[in-house]
Structure formats: C-alpha cells, structure tokens
Amino acid sequence: MKTILTFSLAILTIAASSNQWTQKANVGGAGRADAAGCAIGGKGYIGTGYITGYTKDWWEYDTLTNVWTQKADFTGSPTVESICTAINGKAYLLPFNTTDFYCYDPATNTWSLLAAFPGSPRQGAIAFSMDGKGYFGLGASGNLSTTMDDLWQYDPSGNNWTQMASLPAASRMHAAAFAVGAKGYVGTGYNAPGGNLSDFWEYDAVLNSWTQRSSFPGGPRNEGTAFSIGSYGYMGGGYGTTPQSAFWRYNPANDTWIPIASLPPGGRVETVCFTIGNSGYLGTGWDGVNFKNDFWKYSPDSVLSGFDLAEWNAEAAIHVYPNPVSNSLYVEHTFHKAAIFVFDAAGRTVIQQNLSDDVPVNTSSLPEGWYNFQLLHEKGRAVGKFLKADKRE
Q1: Other CB atoms within 10 Å distance of the CB of residue 184
Q2: What is the pLDDT averaged over residues 83-97?
Q3: 188 close to 239: Cβ distance less than 8 angstroms
Q4: I want to staple 82 with a disulfide (CB 3.0 to 4.6 A). Which of 58, 95, 218, 303 is the partner?
Q5: 105 bridge partner residues
Q6: 45 vs 91: CA distance, rounded Å
Q7: If one looks up domain 20-299 in CATH, what number appears?
Q8: Which residues contact 357 (CB under 8 A, 6 or more apart)?
Q9: Are 177 and 126 in contact (CB under 8 A)?
C-alpha cells in the first residue's frame, strides 16, 4: 500500500534556517588573522596566519560532528596572507612572499613541494579553481609599494604553470574572488597608490578574457571575502573606513547584486571562507580590536536560480510517494522549478536533485532508515520525511 505525503502550500513549513548565519565550533588554536583555507571532500581546512607572530598549524573541520582536529603542520616557513584553493581533492597553497608552492593531501595528511610559482613573490593575492585547474594572481610585492594584475593557471595533472590574461583594470592586493561554473569573479581590493576599489570582473577561462560586471554595491574596500553556493556568488566583510559586516549575493545570470544577512558579530577583515555542500563557512580574522577564532555557517534562502515568481500557484499541492520507499521516490508538483534535498540522520546531504516530470529520485543506494527532505520551490521549502526499506514497492 502506498502512502502519499500531501503538503498544502497554505501550511508549508518554511525553513527557518534560510538566509542566516549560525555560529559553529571555534576554529582550533588561538584567534588569528590572514590565515589560509579551503574545503575538500566535505571538510574544511584553515591554518597558518598571524597570532602573535606567523604560524604554520593546520586544522580540519568536520561538519557532521562540528569538531576541529589538528592536522600536520604546513611544512614551509610560518606564513601569513597566503592563498589557497582546492583542486581535485587536494589543497594548493602559495605562501607569503615566496615562489614556493605546496600541496596538502588530506588522504595522507602530508604536504609536498611542487613546481615553483613563476610569478613574482607576493602577498594579499587571490586564488580560485574551476575545471580541475587553479588560478592564482594579483597581490602586492613584499614592501606593498607595487600591486599586481597578473593571473596564472596551475594544472596539477602536469604540475605546470601557464600565464593567462592579466586583469585589464587597476592592479590590486586584498581583492575578493570566487568561481561559479566555468568562470571566475574578482572584485574590490587595494591599489597602490590609488586606494580602495569597488569594481568587479568576470574571467572566462575558455576564452582567456575578462569582462567588467556591475560594481560591488558595498563600496570600495579591501580584505573582504567571497565564496559561491550553486549558481550564486557571495561577497562581503572587508575594510572600507572600518571593518564591515554586510554581505551581498551576486547573480551571474543577470549581473545583479542583492543584500543578504550581515555577519552577526559585526565587521570583520582578513577572514577565511569556503563552501561545503549548500552552505558557506567563514571564520577567523580581525574585528579592528581582536584576532578571532569564531566560525560561522551561512545558509542561503535558496540554491535554485531563475525562478519566475509569477508562475507560483498558491493552490498547488506536493505529492511524495511511496512511503516506505525502496528504489524510486516520486515527487509530483505544479511548480515551474523545484529541487529536492535528502538528509540522513546526521544531517548530511545524501541526495540533491532538480525535479523534472516523471523522473523519480533514485534512492536505491541509501541504507535503510529514516530520511528528512526539503523540497525547494519558487516560494520557499516544503519539509518532510520518509522511510527507506529494501523491499518491493
């Protein structure tokens, strides 16, 4: 017998966790600024930076247990204002004011030295990754008198570097950068001697070209931070005239910015941020007085894009069946766009799928047990649960 779960949109439970920051366990070690970090395989990594001097410790964050674990120290010299990005399950780090270039492998908890960075030594640079390659560039020379506009591509498959098109704008250090799909985005920063900047640029790796986009609406600043979730970029914090807390969401599809929830503790600069699953994470930094080791999770209001709100039907119903389920979960709805997210008992996302007509959700690989789900649509989220049981439907 099939059980149909029906949700009237008049009584939908809208997830209270949307568009908000939630505090998580403090980053391991003392408060610090100008650390480096990235996310690899569902876990976050933060280390190095300035405490009472430069440091080289390295920490791993587990979202399932909300626990930080100290890992092998960075094997180069203690460093600050380094840049780091993840490529194919490993972290790649370019330290402060050196051309040495390192890889961290979480599978073996080891660091290795790779082909030297061919650009000039620098600090306050940017890094992002896409399509299995890393991109490193901008920054300033050691005495901070000269800012740079160059960009370099690193290919781990050949352990080699290629110079790419330079940013066709003011050179800068302490810019913010993220990648969405096959394009990178870079904005804000500090130009020597011109001062803080607010312009914003898109880099197309296929064409090896830059296109100017709508300026960051928060105004000129440096030492801000950025990450991406799904098809959106998120950018904020940084130093204007004082440390800032406001954040904005950028939509590459229509080149627009909208404000989102501000970071609750207040203004922050010199942070580390990264994305795990459908959430952004941000921690460490300096608030203008103290070095910080607090750590925050950002939950967006939606990971879907391109909704036409006029097509929302307030009388629609959602049908999710069968319950219990074996191999295929069917979701009937009348929305223009919808997606389902399925979570196990530990809160881990085990299925994420855009929903189309007559295409079931494949649940065959799930172990038996109860699962929660959220169905995202034009106006919010429907929530429910189902039982996975390995039997004939």
Answers
A1: 26
A2: 97
A3: no
A4: 95
A5: 110
A6: 9
A7: 2.120.10.80
A8: none
A9: yes
